[in-house]
Write a structure and sequence with these properties.
Elements lengths: L1 E4 L2 E8 L2 E7 L8 H15 L6 E6 L11 H6 L3 H20 L3 E6 L3 E2 L1 H8 L2 E5 L4 E2 L13 H8 L1 H9 L7 H7 L4 E3 L2 H16 L3 H11 L6 H15 L3 H11 L1
Parallel strand pairs: 3-4, 4-5, 5-7, 6-8, 7-9
Antiparallel strand pairs: 1-2, 2-3
Helix pairs in contact: 1-3, 3-4, 3-10, 4-5, 5-6
């Protein structure tokens, strides 16, 4: 499957029971709502694809992995309903990854901000390079990482979530993220990472699919309420984005 539009690109390639989803956007691989919608639908489709055993999630280029949600669309939010819809995009993608019948492996090659950290946290296993620094900058503009917080908390714990969230201007390096549980492996370069990722995914694809499915369910135990929870969190962000504080902060960033 290949789709390319001005709102970003999404490609899927299936080889030897391994599906690789690659997303991209000119603005540091950020996500407009349309691209999030397409990614959600692709996870739902691949979840039911019999020839797929493992899914790899990656992004285009060799710089940022993901800059989070589209800044242009954030600026365009004009009312609470639009705000909720805007922040619901990552909620739906995270839930599609959580409900996916296949294990999802993240390939994090570069810096990751906001919603991109949420995507990494929603993967079942992550490979990264030492360039894969992470940051949650939402509080600095008057909102918070409310939608992705459950995924980050599940993977990294409350203390790491607090440190990332409250130190909103501070980058955390890839080895810090590995220590806290977000990344399973960190490599010096993409070549070494891709070599190990290929070996790892091929091994997984050769295992009993029923055993992998049952393991996936165990890994996500206790998250059954996330559909309503993440929607509620999206509503909180949707209201805050209209605040005077956030409007002023966004105006300064735009300048």
């Amino acid at each position: 499957m290949t789709t390319t539009r001005e709102n970003g690109s999404l490609y899927t390639n299936i080889v030897n029971r391994i599906a690789t989803i690659e997303f991209g956007h000119p603005a540091s691989n950020s996500f407009p709502g349309e691209l999030l919608d397409r990614l959600e639908k692709e996870f739902n489709r691949l979840s039911e694809e019999e020839e797929v055993q493992v899914i790899i999630l990656r992004s285009e280029g060799d710089r940022a992995f993901c800059a989070g949600a589209s800044f242009e669309e954030l600026l365009a939010v004009g009312n609470m309903q639009q705000g909720k819809m805007f922040f619901s995009g990552f909620a739906r993608v995270i839930n599609s990854m959580r409900n996916c019948n296949k294990l999802v492996i993240g390939r994090i090659h570069g810096k990751t901000v906001g919603g991109g950290v949420g995507l990494a946290a929603a993967c079942d296993y992550c490979f990264a390079t030492e360039k894969a620094a992470i940051k949650l900058s939402e509080l600095s503009i008057g909102i918070g990482p409310f939608v992705i917080a459950p995924a980050v908390k599940r993977k990294m714990g409350v203390a790491a979530l607090a440190e990332l969230t409250l130190a909103a201007h501070e980058w955390k390096n890839a080895y810090w993220a590995q220590e806290k549980g977000l990344f399973a492996r960190v490599f010096d370069n993409t070549q070494d990472m891709d070599k190990e990722l290929e070996f790892f995914s091929e091994k997984l694809a050769g295992y009993n699919p029923t055993a992998l499915y049952e393991m996936k369910k165990i890994l996500w135990e206790g998250t059954e309420n996330w559909k309503s929870l993440l929607e509620e969190r999206a509503a909180i962000s949707g209201e805050l984005v209209l605040s005077e504080f956030t409007k002023n902060a966004l105006s300064k960033l735009k300048k």
